[in-house]
Amino acid sequence: MRAVTVYRVDFGWKTKVPIGAVLEKRKTERANNNYDLLRLARRIFALDAADAANIIIDVNQARRVILPEQTRECLAG
Fold this sequence. Notes:
By secondary structure, the chain is α+β, with helices and mostly antiparallel strands. It has helices spanning about 35-45, 60, 70-75; strands spanning about 1-10, 15-25, 55. A hairpin with a 4-residue loop joins strand 1 and strand 2 (about 15-25).
């Protein structure tokens, strides 16, 4: 699993404020992985339809594995 940070962008101040994270559970790369994560983040964190344009994810971070996956050895011990 990969955790991808979700940001709310303030275009006036040109800042990104982290507001949460979404988990990518797909093990293989598909055509719409990043777009689907962005849609999920907007569905969860946007306050209204106009605020959805201010929600972004860090695409570079999406490829970095930060959560270890559980294996049988981890579950057995």
